[in-house]
Write a structure and sequence with these properties.
Involved in the regulation of shoot development and salicylic acid (SA) homeostasis. Keywords: Cytoplasm, Iron, Metal-binding, Nucleus, Oxidoreductase, Vitamin C. It holds the Pfam family DIOX_N. It is found in: Cytoplasm; Nucleus. The chain is α+β, with helices and mostly antiparallel strands. The protein has a single domain (18-50, 65-322), classed as Jelly Rolls, CATH 2.60.120.330. It contains 12 helices and 15 strands. The strands form 3 sheets. It has an 8-stranded mixed β-sheet with strand order 2-3-11-8-13-6-5-4. A hairpin with a 2-residue loop joins strand 9 (265-269) and strand 10. Helix 4 (80-93) crosses helix 8, helix 5 (106-120) crosses helix 8 (180-205) and helix 8 runs antiparallel to helix 9 (211-222). The termini are far apart. Mean pLDDT is 87; it is low at 6-21.
Length: 373
Amino acid sequence: MSPAMALNEQRSKDDAAEEQIEYEKGEKHLCEKGHIRAVPKKYILPVADRPTKTVKDSNVLNQNLQLPIIDFAELLGPNRPQVLQSLSNACQQYGFFQLVNHCISDDVVRSMIDVSGRFFDLPLEERVKYMTTDMGAPVRCGTSFSQTKDSVLCWRDFLKLLCHPLPDFLPHWPVSPLDFRKVVGTYAEESRHLFLVVMEAILESLGIMEKEEKESVMEEFENGSQMMVANFYPRCPEPELTLGIPPHSDYGFLTLLVQEEVEGLQVQYQDKWVTVQPIPNAFVINVGDHLEIYSNGKYKSILHRVIVNEVKSRVSVASLHSLPFNSTVKPSPKLVDEDNPKRYMDTDFATFLAYVSSQEPNKKDFLESRKLL
């Protein structure tokens, strides 16, 4: 190779490395650098994976999806048996439901969304302090699923926070905006309490009624894991070419999502992608992989994705809940018998981390790897 060719090759490598570093700083950073008129190549999905909205696309329903609505106040009242049946139907048929009249005030929810948006408005110099590829870090700011492994990047930035026990993790959280720790700490505690009440109802809806077993499981949840994920989806000049988050299921038992009143979440329903219509002040709650394992397949974690748009940016906050990170998740003995044999291997969080750290996440591949039948 001639010296000139070698120099050109080195320059190409340097340019590629510099470009990769820019991508790793996040989608917000790319937008801040200047008005983006086209989606960069690194974000463009293969044609078959793009979120086209045309009526001709047989994989997309040209309508919004009204998820089952569970009234939290009714769940705690005399109509609890009927609401538990509705809850069971929602977890079996949709894997999702919207929870209304819950116990968290509108001010707490609005403040959580507001402070998340203000975090992403901070200068890059502030946000970069928390950028890491360590999936076990108590605070992790980044973009896509994995900047280092994803062949196509996602049109989103995220901030992930470990939340429980709160005193252990709060000192690691960002100190800017100034009210960040107070607002997010309050929201983390209240959303965790809501999870515990809903999870107890989920156990009852599965027929886990014996006091000793239910108390044992709930005690594990009391000491369980909680991770908060704040997502920022900038406006996108060509939303038909990319996704905010590709199709995936969530790893835990339940995910509690709050979002701005901007459409974005899509759920796979009857093998078609449908957009979830946001309900003001409601939580979107979905079954995670661990609940599918625990229920021995009765309740399903459903593929979902996030689309973006060219008119408005969007902020959402997901709170993911499960057993403690060192616990083993397995089908409940109550739900395993001769007619319903054990369908999943026992698993733990370390196994999940090892799996997702070794390859590019793809739909429900991890859960599929745990199936026995």
